[in-house]
Structures are given as C-alpha cells and as structure tokens.
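Q: I'm building a small set of examples for a reading group on sequence design. Run inverse folding on the following structure and report the sequence directly after it, with nothing in between.
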C-alpha cells in the first residue's frame, strides 16, 4: 500500500467530519490510535469501554471522544455504537472463555449493517495456537462480509510482554547498597535466548491503524494483509540493548514453561501454548516481518532502542521486583492478589479489560 500523503486538507466543521469508532480506546492499541487521530483533527472520534468511569475513559471524554459503555458480546450495544460510523479500528479481547470470535462477528455484522466504509482489524496469521487463531477465525469471517475497504494487521510479540504479562513480573533488579541505584537487571521470560522474533508495541499497532484510517481513499486497496513489526531481535539482543542504554549489567535466563503451568490465573495454559510454538521456531505459515516496510507506512513505529528510550525503560523499572524481606512480603501479597484475580475473572466479574491489549 502506498505511503499516505501528509499534506493537510482544509479542516471541515467538526460536525461534518467522518466518524471513526476505535474499539477499546482505553487500552494500549486503542489509545495509540486515538492519540494520533486527535492530533490529526480530521475525524470525529468514538470509542467503547466496559468501564466509562475509569481514569483513562474520563481522559478521553475530556478530549471530545464519544464514549459508549458496554460489552462487545451485546449485539444491540454494538449496533448502537456503530451507528453513523465511517471508519472502524476493530480490536478484540481475550476473556479466556471462547468469546473473542463472537466479539469479532458482532462487530463485523454491525459494521456491515451501518455501512462502514473502512475497517482496520488487529489480528494475525493462523499458527496453530488458540489465542492467535481466534483472531484468524475472525479474519476469515470478516472476509465473507465484503467490506469495500479492509486492512488486516498481522501483529507481533509485544515489547511490553518482556516486562509483565497477566500479573507476572519478569524483571528482577539488584541495587547498590550505598547509593540505592540499580546495579543489575535480570530478565526472565520463556523465549529461547538466541531466537530472533518480531516485536512491536501495542501502542504502535494503534498508530499504524491511525495511519491507515487517515490515508486517502485511493491508497487503500479493497483488501490487504499488512504484517507489521518495530524490530526483529532475540531476547539476548534486547537485554544487551538495556545494558548499553543504562550502563548497568544485565542478564537473561529462559524461564521454564512449567512456571506458567502452575500459575492460578486465567489464560496460563494459553501462555504455555504460545511459547511452545516459539520454542518450535514458529512452524506453520511463518512469522516473518519487515520493520522497515512497516516504518515506510508509519514512521512513528519504534524499534527496540526507541521503545526503551521513550518509556520502555521506565516501564521496566516500575514493574521490576527486588529481593529482600520487605519485597518478599510485597511479592507474597501480589501472589494473593493474582490468585484472587484468577477466581474473580473466572466467575465473569472482570471489567475494563481493554488495558491488557
């Protein structure tokens, strides 16, 4: 797809601007998309959330974003949210109860009924792993609906998942006893240390979606798959970048898969399934990505160095854990919270899960 032109058109009165619906605007992908669209001032914006009273949701409404509160499994709600929409960024959320495909079908059906002209779907290829194949099932369904213009984004492993995922902290730090400064980072995730895989930040997925939503109509094919990534590197190379940036000794240890099998949280078995696929060197339809091709479309997509410098290192420091009696107590409390969260989610009471995407 050609790179969209950057020449600004004359701004229209706001009421005449096309309306874009961004699913899950309080999440990482949705918020990344909305931030760029607000700056462009070329679309009216609407989003969905399961908690309209959250701090993130209130911040969006303060910027003039319409907010619809409800569940993507509620077809009448989805239909109301879709009314009058010209462009759609379609993001679905895993609730570990088999509902994700139905979310996608509800959104696709409502978009067709509302006459939506342009759709961007955040998904991925079929890889034989339940969590990702859900998204490919949605893609297959969307293909049957005959949208006039639809773009399928095939995404990659999130940088953020190196730091934390579903309540697990994956970076340990040691501090200098005298200065209190961080003296060493210890990274532990279940990826093979020397295996290079594609990475991207979910916020940057949203930025790619915003670029597509703003592109001239003539630049959007009727249907296209865009594999996207910000970088391709191994966990060992990522850790070396942290060391080079901070000047702090950093090491990597491959976390055993049985660690996740023992976690009493929803989706732990899906995490194991995904990492087994990575351990098998990504068999199936492949997982190749070209970061430079992605940046030719959307220059703001960050490589690993840029992600670290623009908030990634701060996230690592904020989410890292330490040894010591006090921190062992904190970790024990966090373990209790995770177990309670697991029970809470399984009985279907969780809200505002968009922030995980």
């Amino acid at each position: 797809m050609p790179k969209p032109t950057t020449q600004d058109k004359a701004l229209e009165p706001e009421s005449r601007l096309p309306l874009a619906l961004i699913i899950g605007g309080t999440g990482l992908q949705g918020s990344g998309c909305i931030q760029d669209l607000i700056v462009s001032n070329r679309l009216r914006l609407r989003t969905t959330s399961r908690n309209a009273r959250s701090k993130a949701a209130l911040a969006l409404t303060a910027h003039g974003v319409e907010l619809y509160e409800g569940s993507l499994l509620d077809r009448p709600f989805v239909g109301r949210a879709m009314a009058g929409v010209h462009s759609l960024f379609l993001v679905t959320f895993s609730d570990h109860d088999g509902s994700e495909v139905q979310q996608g079908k509800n959104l696709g059906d409502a978009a067709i009924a509302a006459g939506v002209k342009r759709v961007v779907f955040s998904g991925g290829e079929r890889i034989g792993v339940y969590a990702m194949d859900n998204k490919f099932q949605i893609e297959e369904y969307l293909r049957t609906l005959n949208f006039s213009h639809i773009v399928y984004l095939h995404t990659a492993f999130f940088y953020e998942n190196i730091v934390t995922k579903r309540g697990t902290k994956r970076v340990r730090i040691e501090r200098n006893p005298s200065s209190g400064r961080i003296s060493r980072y210890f990274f532990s995730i279940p990826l093979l240390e020397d295996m290079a895989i594609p990475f991207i930040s979910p916020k940057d997925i949203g930025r790619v979606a915003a670029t597509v939503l703003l592109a001239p109509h003539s630049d959007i094919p009727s249907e296209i798959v865009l594999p996207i990534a910000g970088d391709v590197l191994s966990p060992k190379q990522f850790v070396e970048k942290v060391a080079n940036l901070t000047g702090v000794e950093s090491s990597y240890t491959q976390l055993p898969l049985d660690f996740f099998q023992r976690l009493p949280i929803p989706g732990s078995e899906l995490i194991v399934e995904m990492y087994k696929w990575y351990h098998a060197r990504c068999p199936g339809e492949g997982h190749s990505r070209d970061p430079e091709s992605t940046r030719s479309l959307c220059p703001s997509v960050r490589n690993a160095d840029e992600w670290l410098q623009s908030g990634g290192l701060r996230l690592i420091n904020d989410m890292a854990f330490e040894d010591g009696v006090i921190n062992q107590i904190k970790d024990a409390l966090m373990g209790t919270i995770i177990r309670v969260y697991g029970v809470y989610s399984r009985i279907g009471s969780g809200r505002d899960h968009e922030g995980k995407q």
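The chain has twelve helices and 16 strands.
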